[in-house]
Amino acid sequence: MTRKRKIIRAVTVADSLIFIEPSVLPLKDKYEVQILSSPGERLNQMGVKYGVKIHPLYMFRRISPFQDLKSLYKLIRLFRRESPDIVHSMTPKAGLLCMLAAWITRVPRRVHTFTGLVWPTSSGISRRILMCTDWLTCACATHVIPEGQGVLNDLQKYITKKPMRVLGYGNVCGIDLKRFSRTDKVMEIAKNIRVNGVFSFLFVGRIVKEKGINELVIAFDELNKKYPATRLFLVGNYEADLGPLNPDTINKINSNSAINAVGAKFGNDLLAYYAASDCFVFPSYREGFPNVVIEAGAMGLPSIVTDINGSRDIIVDGKNGIIIPSKNYVALYNSMEQMILDEELKQSLASNAREMIEKRYEQSFVTGCLLDFYDKINANV
Length: 381
What we know:
CATH architecture of the largest domain: 3-Layer(aba) Sandwich
CATH topology of the largest domain: Rossmann fold
Number of helices: 15
Number of domains: 2
Helix content: 40-55%
Number of strands: 12
Distance between the termini: 21 Å
Strand content: 15-25%
Shape: globular
Low-confidence stretches: none
Largest sheet: 6 strands, parallel
């Protein structure tokens, strides 16, 4: 009996395992799959659910030389013990440490997926450090997968000349269209959220500066004064330590009753907010490939997004949404007002939204692209 090739999929923290979970079962047909991340409940659950070996190993998101060296040492020992055929990492710190450890232990196929780049929106010494870590990750990897054409362009222009290509249409995990649909149960919950005659805007993501929340709240607060029958849902957790909002923004959120900051939502509760809304707004400064924009499209929502990597790959301006400049609350205000006033445009964008997601980001298609990639790199070794 031929031995299955061994693959270790790695992310920094357990919550990021959502990126790789859809591919685990299809991979098990051909590979011995192992999963690595910092300890967390999701890691334990995946080990039990899919019957795969898990490796809880602490990795810290922030730069921490002592802890990073400690994690690197443990990864080197792990890779020597397991002798994987492929190590495939995602997220920045897992990429740096796993690619370096895999290079040191001579793992034959070392793959890293860039789901986004941090340094383009940084400056000074921080930008240089981040660019150096991405360069080292690429130097140690045998294969680099950029999530989207924009990430590919930035990597090849500033970081590495190593050949690389986007898989499929860029997204790395795809979307389960059966789950992201307006089922009877979802619509029943949505009925308790929606208010007839009120135009509802929706944001889903971390409530932090880099997601464009300051601009969104300013734009909506002005819009709401002119159009009182409007509402803004902010779905996500506020992370004050990672991206504090302006004090004026916090004051507007707390004082304007039309702004509903409802915290993080999951499962049918999250889907109900998509179903209860009229337009999705995502004014982020930078992304890899924002899954929430795909989710909104799958739920039939037109989107307003900024002209950044990932978002511009999902949204075609004037077809399934509107693309505006980043960090521009005036453009954001104008596009939100257009959605309210131009019902024909809104309906046209909404009618195209799900169909465009079905064609490009359905989960089995995305997973198939990844399996084809593994087959090709195995054939070349």
